[in-house]
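Quick one:
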Amino acid sequence: MYAKRNRENMNQIEYRWTNGKNEDFKKFYLITEEYYSKIVGGSKNRSSFVPYNMSESVTDVVIAYYNDIAIGCAGLKKYSDNDVEIKRVWVEPDYRGNHIATSLMDFLENHAKEYGFKRIILQTRNIMTDALRLYSKCGYYQIDNYPPYDKLEGAICLAKDL
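Output:
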């Protein structure tokens, strides 16, 4: 296993672009679904939001690989002409602490700029303190909750101007 103590191997991480139909991304989608359901007290508490978060609707996905093993992902989904939404930022627990999530965020932001988006947005929750720390470090700021998250208790929406 690649662990935090092996930071010298960071140059062995490969980032590949794909889409929401990719099998590795679908695997991460299921992992994140389980994780998100657990933190909100069950999948029934998220059922109204699942249609907005289907893996196939994520058009641009970057996956981090170590020795050809998928270890993390992040995706983009068009929200409006000016805004693109970040979906499913995830790094496997054994690989966390190696700046992989930060690299994934950099890839997303650069990709969004290339597509001409003016702002990148996302939704998270107060309970996801590691995610909030990452987004803050990357320069994201809190905005009013946007639909469909404007009706989700505990949701926090963030943005970054590109």
